[in-house]
Sequence to fold (368 residues):
Amino acid sequence: MVEYLERIFDFKLFSSSAYEGTPQSFFENDSMWYLVQNALNYSKIFPSIQLLKLYNQLYIDLKFTCDSKHNILSQKKYLEKEVIIVANINWYPGHMAKAKRLMQKEQKNVDIVYELIDSRIPKSSKISNIYDIIGNTPKILIMTKKDMTDEEMALRWVKYYENLGSRVILADLNSDEDILSIVKLTHELAEEIQTKREEKGLLKKDIRVLVMGIPNVGKSTLINKMVGRKVAEVGNRPGVTKGLVWLNTPHGITLLDTPGILWPRLEPREVALNLASFSAIKTEVVDENEIAVHILNKLNKYYPDKLRERYGIVPNPVELDILAAYDTIARSMGAIRGGEVDYEKVSNRIINDIKSGYIKGVVFDHEF
Fold:
């Protein structure tokens, strides 16, 4: 039995909890759960939507005695809560580490920092170690995607960060009015710098601003809008900008464009899934099925009307039946093959609905 698990999980089990029993008693033995936990924790990660596939494979290979396939389905919740241990994502591409070092080096030349966060994930998208990079440099916190967010909830986050001492602007970066609000606040914060120069008989200078944030938060959109032409590539995907570049604007402000950066470990898991849901990290890093399930659960919890309107799914205030939800979506989009749901196709649809703006007016971070 141990050899079987080592083979299917591609992992050498090191647990001393050996199990000598019949395949039929596999799911009744606590020591075997422990072995599976170790295998899942250190080898392949099985997101919740793939649990059924795993269970069915065990059922086939072990010839587990069971009255019907329905009994396997009934074990799903037990598997989700007791077996699956999801490892923290450790993902820190080389260009991010390099960018952080370069920003620390340039920090002495910077007058003000623009920190951009996605207003749909205003907690998850905030750089956790930002003061290690910017020190005491004055900062404007720009909450982007105003046109895509739940504005009532986003304004609660504005107030939260203001109470912590931040200067905050909730902005649609495609809005001229919002861009001018950012320019105005920048010059207000720079008044002391300009006054000191005038006292020394010097002319006013362009304010040097470091633009920073996680990937796909809107840095390139902001820069292009402020410069007045396309100088930074914009893409609804992480990792578009790779280097540091100083750019002039007609507003008396010089911008330092930087790559999106993340912290070395994305934890708790909730943060990683929120980032993946809004394209801040690549879907190759987190399983697409798991991202899609996370999105459905968030909609069910906070925006049940959107779940009903977009997918025809009846929300459940206690817990959403994910398999039933996938079945409903699959039938509406023709993703049933041979009587089976095409989980990958459904998951891609859910993720793209967020990315393309078909589902908007949401905030996934509700706990301050």
In short: The first strand starts at residue 89 and ends at 90.
